[in-house]
Design brief:
This protein has a six-stranded antiparallel β-barrel. The protein is 45% helix and 30% strand. The longest helix is centred in the last third of the chain and has 25 residues, at 157-181. The protein starts with a helix and ends with a helix. It has helices at residues 2-6, 24-31, 37-59, 61-80, 157-181, and strands at 11-21, 92-98, 102-107, 116-123, 129-142, 145-153. By secondary structure, the protein is an alpha+beta fold. It has one domain: Thrombin, subunit H (Beta Barrel). The chain is globular, with a radius of gyration of 17 Å. It has five helices and six strands. Helix 3 (37-59) packs antiparallel against helix 4 and helix 3 runs parallel beside helix 5.
Length: 182
């Protein structure tokens, strides 16, 4: 797994994070196909929309910005009216370290290595919500809180594409800010 983690770049970001520990039976059930099919379909649509908006941005930047804002508004409305998997109400906005295969964040909860979790990320500013399982690969202490490192499991190709697009956009914004300061 460590080789896979090195294939993807990591960024520091913020996202709403919600999670709960799950049993091995729940984890197995999820991995055997009880993933949220609607979430996968929405992820695929968001991936296609992201590609189309990138193409539109070079031709008509103002129209692309309007479309992005409308998409964010739709995502926010959908998230506000859903209670994913019956356990997630409101995610807590956290500083995270994110890649296409895992995440690290601070938490008040004590988790153990190899603990299975069900995780929801709401990416900012798009409010795209990704739900997946994960395994705790490491824990540590820092800034008075636990640092939890999670390897995504059963992420799905469309959700991984969404994450990679998000990572690209965050990195692009950071580079634009850096150039503006220079």
């Amino acid at each position: 797994m460590s080789d896979e983690r090195r294939r993807f770049f990591r960024i520091d970001d913020e996202a709403e994070v919600s999670f709960k520990t799950i049993s091995d039976e729940e984890y197995t059930s999820w991995s055997e196909g009880q993933q949220d099919e609607e979430s996968e379909v929405l992820a695929k649509i968001d991936t296609e929309l992201g590609i189309a908006l990138s193409n539109l941005k070079s031709q008509q930047p103002q129209l692309a910005k309007i479309c992005e804002l409308l998409n964010q508004k739709i995502n926010l409305t959908m998230t506000a009216h859903s209670n994913t998997h019956g356990f997630i109400t409101e995610g807590e906005l956290k500083s995270i370290n994110l890649s296409a295969c895992g995440i690290a964040f601070h938490s008040d909860e004590d988790l153990i290595q190899d603990q299975s979790i069900l995780l929801q990320l709401k990416l900012k500013p798009s409010n795209v919500s990704i739900v997946t399982t994960g395994k705790v690969i490491d824990t540590g202490a820092g800034s008075g809180k636990n640092i939890i490192r999670i390897d995504f499991q059963n992420l799905g190709e469309n959700n991984q594409d969404l994450l990679m697009q998000h990572l690209f956009h965050v990195q692009s914004r950071a580079l634009k800010k850096q150039r503006a300061r220079e």
